[in-house]
Amino acid sequence: MGVFYGIGVGSGDPELLTLKACKTLRLLDVLITPVTAEEKESLAYNIVRDLLNHNVEVLFRRFPMSEDPAIWQESAAAVAEEIRILIGNGKNVGFVTLGDPMFYSTYVYLLQELKRRGIDAQTIPGISSVTAACSKTGVSLAEKNERIAIVPAVYAHTDIQPILDAFDTVVFMKVKGDCSSLIERLERAGMKETAVFVSRLGLDNEQIVYDLDEIRGCNVNYLSLIIARKKR
Amino acid sequence: MGVFYGIGVGSGDPELLTLKACKTLRLLDVLITPVTAEEKESLAYNIVRDLLNHNVEVLFRRFPMSEDPAIWQESAAAVAEEIRILIGNGKNVGFVTLGDPMFYSTYVYLLQELKRRGIDAQTIPGISSVTAACSKTGVSLAEKNERIAIVPAVYAHTDIQPILDAFDTVVFMKVKGDCSSLIERLERAGMKETAVFVSRLGLDNEQIVYDLDEIRGCNVNYLSLIIARKKR
What we know:
Chains A, B: Keywords: Cobalamin biosynthesis, Methyltransferase, S-adenosyl-L-methionine, Transferase. Chain A has 232 residues and is α/β, with parallel strands linked by helices. Chain A has helices at 19-25, 43-48, 69-88, 107-116, 129-137, 161-166, 180-188; strands at residues 4-8, 30-35, 57-62, 93-97, 121-124, 148-152, 169-177, 196-199, 207-209, 220-229. In chain A, helix 3 (69-88) packs across helix 4.
């Protein structure tokens, strides 16, 4: 029997890979890397390609971007079935994910489908975009007894005032398109001045914006987040 | 002028260091490592000791455990002053922190004191205990549009019901001593069954407990956390 590894490759900068991730990549016979239907290349694969053995087989597998979990489950089930056969044939199989595998990642669907088939996974954590953004900008996520909320930006359209009230740091994930209304909410909550917008960190077209007025009305990339803090 | 680096060394397992952290450690002339008054050894130093140059100077500096920020600030100011002189003498200086430097770390006080002295820092993120615990246990922190709250366990003694209601995943940090009352709250909120307790991950005396009843009434170590999830 081979072994299955889920490998977090960090938020973009290849140097943010862990030693464990590098070591594991070299054990692989087969690497599975996710691609969306929309993008032809795999960001996760681009990060690890130079670290693989020359004889590793690379399989690009589609995980379409969709709000429907059934679609993700279907993709995950097909890949899990493929992994089952490969490790049955004694192959070590890896699956790479951008950032951390347990943090807003498709990987979790794959994990569930593997579990259903009685397959153990060894998961290797990665530096998430949030962690990397904090180090890059010098913004601390939390100190002492502070509280952190991490929410997809879509919640900015609901009543998030209780969350803004109750937490010291609020991270908005999956910021995309025009985020003017989110910026207005942060302004009203007195959290705009200390907020920072970070997009595609460690990737091409990286963007760090400290004055959120600069991105009002812009169509921002989907690999973006905003970290907002109460004034200390 | 030398350069100052703040280096996250991961949650305990030395293999969770990033390539960037390893590369940076080899650039150092001086390594500053924090110790508490209570513990004689530095956990962060133990992780990196084998990766340092032979001629590196290692300075153990005290950051006493205290609830009083003034005490931390005082320690940070003294270390910042030391760094100012060292980099003025052309030395590359590193400061290591367990986990991630921006996530509940003393490092932030140091960063503030350095800023006050006009000193730039290059901060290198690390795998936090939360991220590592999720990979180890197979518990995902968030999927799709879920919301995450991260709160120090001391809040379990206040009205945390609104937080338990509003979030899909709630991580309790700095769990220590007897956490029976927190367990009872999770039970009432229907989140006990899916919760996991993780202590000293990657360090000696590592402990992972899926049935929280097992730790009721125990005096748990301070490097512990509980990840609680709503049933999906």
